[in-house]
Amino acid sequence: MSSPSVNPLIQKNIRTLLSMRRREEESMSAGTRIADAITRFTGSIPFLLIHAVLVVAWFVINTGIIPGVKPFDPFPFVMLAMAASVEAIFLSTFVLISQNRQAALADKRAELDLQIGLLTEHEVTRLIQMVEVLMRHHGLPNQWGDLEELKQEVAPERVLTAIEEELTD
To answer: Rg (Cα) of the chain, in Å, rounded?
Structure first.
């Protein structure tokens, strides 16, 4: 399905990115899928509401305010604290698993962005050089003082070195 307001090339790129995302999801292990599902659920409002109801019920039952119901975890609610601690250990582990996967994906995307940026820089430099040749051929003056600088190739390693030097100064 294509949208008339979106360039066909952009539509192709969207389909390509979605296809890559599906392949990434399909290649995930069962454990990673489970960790992501748990992380998604535990980071939701329904999870918060369920916990709020359970904790309030725990307090009501264990404070002895309901006649005929014997508290099983009287104040200071040691069992509740232990259950919450164990739950926190597992939930934090699931969150870390999901964050590690997301970080790996972010690293891949950053690498892709860098490669595209470097390719774009190279292409733009070539275009500037071609425009300069065309300008000279047609006898047009250079109205931009920085054209000489712009048509120079950018060396990423020199840029990184300059950044590192600035950071250490």
So the answer is: 29
